[in-house]
Please model this.
Amino acid sequence: MDAAGDRSLHSTNVAVIREVYDSEYSQHNFSMELEKALDRKCCVIVIEPSQLGDETARWISFGNCLHKTAVISGFTSIVSGFIWNNSLTPQAHFSIFSLLCTGLYTASWQFDHCVKYQVERDPRKLVRLPILGAITSQSPVVLVRKDDTYRKVLHCTISLSAAAFCVYKFYREVN
Model:
């Protein structure tokens, strides 16, 4: 499976956080199980507790939104620099916004283990996972480990290129 990276999908590479409530379990225990699975770098993590799954999915979605916003605003800054050749204002705003999003993403997600995971929503890919037959929850959140090197390089390169182009145009206007 391509989402599993270079490791095969064995039971040691799959973690299931079960929704089991008894005197020993609480939401904190579910969070600790998730942290352990993230630390083990499991290829697939299935989260049955709905509250933990929803929070994790929202956190990953917010990071994805920051990443996409950094890329789109950086790209828009570069394009606007060519379209409005005599005006630096639209380009500067988009460039600053791109740098802010990149900085926030880097500061908040750089050392977070969740950055390596994406929520898998494609039913065709979910069916291929052998562990899903043992799932007791109706709507588990399935996290798949993916290499994020490309996306980090992409948004950093675009943001820095947009800022450099903006600085270049400013320098050219001043001189």
In short: The chain has a mean pLDDT of 83. The longest helix spans residues 50-83. Strands lie at 14-17, 44-47, 117-119, 141-145.
